[in-house]
Structures are given as structure tokens and as C-alpha cells.
Amino acid sequence: MGWSAISLAIWLHLAIVLSAISLTPVLLWDPCGMRRHRQLGCVGVTAMAISALDSIWIRQSDHGQFSMSHRLSAFTAFRAPRIVLSVRAHDHAGHRQSVHALVISGLLTAGTLTFSFHRLPGRWFLG
């Protein structure tokens, strides 16, 4: 598959996911409650929610059907607002739990699944 054959949805998804991935370590190590943490947190949560929603249009593998990655995207789309709501309610334990759940499911697990051999990133990087 040539670069020009890759859909706009995949390029958008890739750009947004890379921004969320790059922000995650900064947010996990940043002191909580600081202005920078709140601002970057809003950007990061928004990026994760948008990437979860735009994955609906990415169905090149699995013969156009929804896959396990789409289930993780649904979880991310419904869980992302919990991060914001919990911190606004000063529920720091709930905020931390929601962040960890999204990082594990939305970035680590979904990211690992994309590198299977029949998916586009797997073909790019693993041949």
C-alpha cells in the first residue's frame, strides 16, 4: 500500500495518538494541580477522546468489521470525561484511577494491538 492510499482518517488518528502518547509521560510526572498539568491534561484527554472517536472510520482490517481495538476506543471515549469530572469534584483517587485505566487500555493495549502483522502499523514496522 502506497502512502497516498492511506486514508485521511488514519493520518488524523496517527497524529492525534502521537500527541497523546508524547504528553502522557509529561502528565504522569508533572506535579498535580499545577497550571501546566491542567492545561496539558485538557489537551491530552481531548486527544485521547478524539482518537477514540475517529477510530470508528478506520476499518481496513477485519474485513470492515469492528475489532477489539474499537472496543478499547469505546471504553476510552466513555472513560475520558471521567478524568475531567473526577478532578473537578476533587476526587483525586478517581482521577488517578481513570488516568491509569486510559493509559493502560487506550494507549498501551490498543497500541500493542496495532502492531499485529495484519494491521497497517505492523506491516510498516515489522514487514
Quickly list its features.
127 residues; mainly alpha
Account of the 3D structure:
The longest helix has 22 residues, at 8-29. The protein has helices at residues 8-29, 35-54, 68-88, 92-113, 120-126. It is mainly alpha-helical. The protein is built from 5 helices and no strands. It starts with 7 loop residues before the first helix and ends with a helix. The mean pLDDT is 81. It is elongated, with a radius of gyration of 15 Å. The protein has one domain.
A few lines on this structure:
With 127 residues, the protein is an all-alpha fold. It has one domain (3-126).
Low-confidence stretches: none
Number of domains: 1
Q: What's the overall average pLDDT, rounded? A: 81
Provide a count of the helices. 5
**What share of the residues lie within helices?**
over 70%
Q: Which series of helices and strands comes N to C?
A: HHHHH
**Structural class estimated from helices and strands:** mainly alpha
- Taken from the alpha-carbon principal axes, the silhouette is elongated
Q: Gap between N and C termini, in Å? A: 12 Å
Percentage beta strand = under 5%
Radius of gyration: 15 Å
**Extended strand count:** 0
Biggest sheet details: none
